[in-house]
Amino acid sequence: MATNEAIQAGLSARGDGSALVLTFSGSWILESDRPLARDFLQTKHDASSFEALHFEVDQLATWDTALLIFVRDACAWAEAAGIKYRFGDLPEGVRNMIRLSQAVPEMKHREQPEPPDFFTQVGEDAIRSYHGMDGYFSFIGQLTIDLFAFLRGKAQLRWKDFLFLLQSTGPKALLIVSLLSFLTGLIIAFIGVIQLQKFAADIYVADLVGLAVTRELGAVMAGVIMAGRTGAAFAAQIGSMQVNEEVDALTSFGISPMQFLVAPRVLALVLMMPLLCACADFVAILGGMVVAVAISDVSFVQYFNQVEQAVGLNDLLAGIFKSGVFGLIIAVAGCYRGLNCGRDATAVGQAATSAVVTSITWIVIADAIFAVSFHILGI
Amino acid sequence: MSGTKDMIKVEGLTMRYGDYTVMKSLDFNVRRGEVKVIMGGSGCGKSTLLKHLIGLERAAAGRITYGDDVFDPDGPSGEAIRRRFGVLFQGGALWSSMSVAENVALPLEEYTDLKPAEIREIVEFKLALVGLGGFGHRYPSELSGGMRKRAGLARAIALDPEILFFDEPSAGLDPLSSRRLDDLILELRDALGATVVVVTHELASIFAIADRALFLDVDTKTALCDANPHDLIDDPAVDVKVRQFLKRGETVSNVND
Ligand SMILES: Nc1ncnc2c1ncn2[C@@H]1O[C@H](COP(=O)(O)OP(=O)(O)OP(=O)(O)O)[C@@H](O)[C@H]1O
Ligand SMILES: [Mg+2]
Questions:
Q1: Burial code of A225-249, b = ≥16 C-beta within 10 A, e = fewer?
Q2: Disulfide: which of A32, A330, B108, B109 matches A7 by Cβ 3.0-4.6 Å?
Q3: CATH classification of B1-84+162-251, choosing from 3.30.70.380, 3.55.40.10, 1.10.260.40, 3.40.50.300?
Q4: How close does chain A come to B141, measured CA to CA in Å?
């Protein structure tokens, strides 16, 4: 019991003439069982019947923040009721700390506005999306101007950065793009061979793999991989520069972030994606060959002859052209999200996420548009 | 509580980043209930020393003792010692996804059984102590640099820790706020019995709060002195660099030839 008593906080209140006297005793520490000032004063005492609030201590053993928040609340209660308070024989530390906490008046913040109703919210979202589109268009417009400046050699940028970007979007991505394309080729050939064997048409697996990969999959695979790998990196990198006010610093020197950060990234990715795509095509066809040779009667030479017949130059170029456009989509989405990133760490995460989602969505949409228009144009 | 007078004892501490030596064989102690100022030119290794003291960096050599326990950041005792710390980082280091009030409340929620209403009151009180009463609902990205600093300070003192480490608490503050902060530091020591280690460049602060000041010198990579700044400033036995530092570079009497 003795230990229990030791961390008991004591509080008594009595009226002394026109003053309310609060007497503290025992241990006023956070671990102890003690009343909250608001409950104690509001429920038991009517401020209007007193003119002053006094504090006293009687055998106060120990105290910490617990006593401080009680006294502060009691003072606030007294002030709100318009009555005076006196610290009396409270320990000096308590008095000083309370005074420090009152030194700067509390900032009164405006009442939080009511959350808008459903229709207002939908309306506001619509307006915001509309302005979002606006932002994209002016971004793309500005980018076009800056790309021309870049091509005329008038852009402010560091060539070292550009070469570094070329390296990180090209050679450094080669391994992962090749690996995944090889596996894609393998998978298509595998499904194809099993189906085609039913008609003894094994050899056409070469057509299947060749066309699927060059027209569609090489570009799309490379696009999706680069969106996850490089698009997210662009958004996160520019986003954290935004957080650290590095972008503001560029602007303050009159260096356009568009020219310095965005244009080289866009150009690097647009240059490198076709190369990655060509490589992906080749490796995927190789992957198909491995399966064809392994599980059907098609020989190495037959396979390549068949691919050569099936795939025309226009198929190859169509895929490679598309990949360049995908590169543009990825770089623009990444840089746009990065530049419009908020000012904290969470915002950087959101920027990276939405860069990937936006670019993959637009890659698929663009691919659909290409499919239709190539058909109409007869390519 | 142990009987030793020293709260922190540093013996032969050598700090290194890669093969760049920041300081070598530092020896000093921090007494219980003392305000210890660490001063020195920019880049001399003050923040680095603080990071070693709180176990974020590993010492290249030497050891750090808290009370009677050798501080081994990776060992089982390290966690218990860390619980006694409150740290203010040079950049504030607020968690940006949480509001200021949530930042201060988090340690209270993690390490105490207090009711939410009480936690709210403690948070309000700590914020009022650093002059940020009413700013609890703001997010760190909506604060000025000095306000972030003070919010970080409120978070550091949330749990009434025994040992406080402040990295330039008054940088970016106006003279009045800075003065109040000095009062707060002294009060934390006097009222709550905290031991405080402060990195600061501000001369007014140094003279106002320091019981003893440790001067780190970038040229010799050692501590030049460790004493009350009032005694250092006019003592001809003290290295000229220290006296010049304390007098903002004004020529000091009997400069060495
Ligand atoms: N992570 C790091 N890697 C390598 N070197 C570092 C690292 N952090 C700091 N340094 C170097 O260590 C030295 C000391 O740095 P520190 O941050 O401790 O300085 P400081 O005394 O706190 O300076 P200031 O007063 O400007 O804050 C500096 O020379 C710095 O360049
Ligand atoms: Mg520092």
A1: bbbbbbbbbbbbbbbbbbbeeebee
A2: A32
A3: 3.40.50.300
A4: 6
